[in-house]
Amino acid sequence: MKTRDRIIHAALALFNQHGEPNITTNHIAADLGISPGNLYYHFRNKEAIIHSIFDQYAQDLALAFDPSQPRDDTQALLQHYLDATFSLMWRYRFFYANLPDILRRDDALQQKYLGAQQQLQTNLMTILHHYRQAGWLSLNDSALSAVGETLKQVASSWIFYQSAQAPQTQIHAGVIYKGILQMLALLHPLTSAQGQMAITALIDHYEQQLVRQDSRSLDTLN
Fold first, then answer.
1. What is the Cα 117 distance to its own chain's centre?
2. Does some domain include residue 49?
3. pLDDT (average), residues 50-58
4. Which residues contact 68 (CB under 8 A, 6 or more apart)?
5. Residue 87: closest CA among 18, 153, 155
6. Pair (63, 37) in one structural domain
7. Residue 26 in contact with residue 49, Cβ under 8 Å?
8. Domain extent at residue 194
9. pTM (two decimals)
10. Alpha-helical runs (H) found in the chain
11. What is the rounded CA–CA span in Å between residue 89 and residue 141?
12. Which of 50, 111, 131, 209 would be 137's cystine partner, CB 3.0–4.6 Å?
């Protein structure tokens, strides 16, 4: 792996583990066993590293959901989207946790973020339109757009919201599963009987994932 890629990889791991505000370029260099000067040869500051991580995130977001895939299984399509959402939220959890502070100090990054949010909204609306075509939703365009916006807000702000609930909150996989369950809970009462059966099955699936995650957390503590 090239040094530049190693820096991005190490920074992402350290940001996720300790929180982006608590990590400096010196921490990243020390973790890699390189000099600060070597790091600055590739990145002029920490903000440049964050930009590169976000570019990677935006690329992963674009690839996470393929609108051209077959539409013959509506439930599987939604699960695929939710699994992709979980993967992204977990892999880049530092960004979600520190989102307001990171964007407040970097106008260029905020513009990138807005572009990524548009991609997220497009993905969500593709799912919702497919649900309506399958007869699982009977909302007009305005209502469908409002539901999509609400679900996007949950996905985008869930980790930050959970982080703000108590000092030193640790973000683990279970926190993200709870966010996915919250999205499903919002969608469930809006769907037809057939749609509710599918969403209930997905809720059961992710609740099982949450139980497994909680069990692993207890094993770690013990």
1. 11
2. no
3. 94
4. none
5. 155
6. no
7. no
8. 54-221
9. 0.84
10. 3-18, 25-32, 36-42, 46-64, 74-91, 93-97, 99-104, 107-133, 141-163, 173-187, 193-221
11. 28
12. 131
